[in-house]
Amino acid sequence: MGVRTKTFDCVEMKNAIQRKLSEEWKGLSDEEIRRRVHQRLETSDDELSRWSRSMRDANHEDSPDSS
Questions:
Q1: What is the pLDDT of residue 30?
Q2: pLDDT band at 1 (very low <50, low <70, confident <90, very high)
Q3: What CA–CA distance (Å, rounded) separates 59 from 61?
Q4: d(CA 52, CA 37)
Q5: Termini Cα distance of the chain
Q6: What is d(CA 67, CA 61) in angstroms, rounded to the nearest whole number?
Q7: What proportion of the chain, given as a percentage, has pLDDT over 90?
Q8: Is 67 helix (H, G, I), strand (E, B) or coil?
Q9: Residue 60's pLDDT band (boundaries 50, 70, 90)?
Q10: Distance of CA 5 to the CA centre of its chain
Q11: Are 15 and 26 in contact (CB under 8 A)?
Q12: How many C-beta neighbours within 10 Å does residue 53 have?
């Protein structure tokens, strides 16, 4: 078998994202961070945000209060 070259390093991507968020959230309380994450999930059009909203909406449709 030949040697395969990695074209994507998921651990490095995770570390880069954590560094970016650490800088972005520096000095914020846990509650402020939660609010920012919630706002981003509510307003972003990225795939994770759309999925999160669809899961929330599906759970609300299944709740007894939704009738």
A1: 97
A2: low
A3: 5
A4: 12
A5: 60
A6: 8
A7: 61
A8: coil
A9: confident
A10: 29
A11: no
A12: 13
Total count of residues recorded for the chain: 67
CA angle 20, 38, 18 (to 5 degrees): 20
Q: What is the DSSP string of 15-35?
A: HHHHHHHHHHTTT--HHHHHH
**Residue linked to tokens 């040697």:** 3
> What's the token pair of residue 26?
């520096």
Cα–Cα distance, 56 to 1 (Å, whole number): 47
5, 13, 15, 16, 53 from 9: Cα distances, Å: 11, 6, 10, 11, 29
